[in-house]
Prior knowledge:
The structure is a homodimer.
Chain A (H helix, E strand, L loop, with lengths): L23 E8 L4 H11 L6 E4 L4 E4 L2 H16 L5 E9 L29 E10 L12 H12 L5 E5 L2 E7 H15 L6 E9 L6
Antiparallel strand pairs in A: 1-3, 1-4, 2-3, 4-8, 5-7, 5-8, 6-7
Amino acid sequence: xxxxxxxxxxxxxxxxxxxxxxxxxxxxxxxxxxxxxxxxxxxxxxxxxxxxxxxxxxxxxxxxxxxxxxxxxxxxxxxxxxxxxxxxxxxxxxxxxxxxxxxxxxxxxxxxxxxxxxxxxxxxxxxxxxxxxxxxxxxxxxxxxxxxxxxxxxxxxxxxxxxxxxxxxxxxxxxxxxxxxxxxxxxxxxxxxxxxxxxxxxxxxxxxxxxxxx
Amino acid sequence: xxxxxxxxxxxxxxxxxxxxxxxxxxxxxxxxxxxxxxxxxxxxxxxxxxxxxxxxxxxxxxxxxxxxxxxxxxxxxxxxxxxxxxxxxxxxxxxxxxxxxxxxxxxxxxxxxxxxxxxxxxxxxxxxxxxxxxxxxxxxxxxxxxxxxxxxxxxxxxxxxxxxxxxxxxxxxxxxxxxxxxxxxxxxxxxxxxxxxxxxxxxxxxxxxxxxxx
Lengths: 214, 214
């Protein structure tokens, strides 16, 4: 049975910017090569940073901005690293609804934020991703009940309609396809769930050019 | 204000094995070296697999078993790779309370599973980790209300007592210290929250021997 993902919610006076709503990503790019420093720096330098604020730390790079800009940036960085032919992995963590450190300044009661699903140009490199979606502040929303699995199943059903290969495994859903298509699918589950759930995060580990996948 | 983490719950007839309760990990080890295949195979070969079932896939390695055994295994694999001196990152995903693919066979109503907090020998290598904790099925538990942030704050408060360095950032808490101590701290938040919340996952990206950290 397919659970429909709502495509719109009631309009509301709550109208934050993406930054105020805490929309963004953290990602860690790993390159299995002695030249990893140069490959990572080149990849970061080649991506289009329009619309995003980027802060690179010791463990991960933090990218904040609207969903479309964040996903474009992350996809371009990973694609640029993979285009060297090196085996690359990326730990990608998307979040919305919980801005600023570990504190939430968003009103109680299930304030959600309707955004369009990001669309990306094909990356021309394929990837396999282990993906998990977490609807967190789901108790007080229009679709009340706090049933986080319902939203997860709906997102997986949606993934089956996007053209990527979808496989279930312990803790994760495995997605295979063009890097941009896989990231679009992950972002769609995140954004569509976020139309009724205030705080939604998603984690995916992506593998590109893996010798085990050949 | 510190929110106390409960140390015990009422005993119950629900007494699953760790496997039945879906206790385990997925982790992806990335080695920034041309020799990554050999380093990863050696690291997997050096770890003690007592008590765990290990399945290595294209993206990640799945480890199921009791919390103590799972954490020991993951810590030993990462430590062995880092001991080569190579820059290593690890995406670690721990889960409990949702066994078998994406389906839950655990009774409704907040069935939780009390486990001891894993304890590990010091690894002798330091790491920095970006850590996120997700209490998911928290609506129907003894501590009702579905307030996932309460459990997250309690886990962060606990982390401040373990001797690792703790820093707040967007979406994550950053932990620095000996690899084993950092993993112990992450596992403690996961296991202690899991004493009252059925489905709890946690994600951490660990960085070791990073040139940016020197």
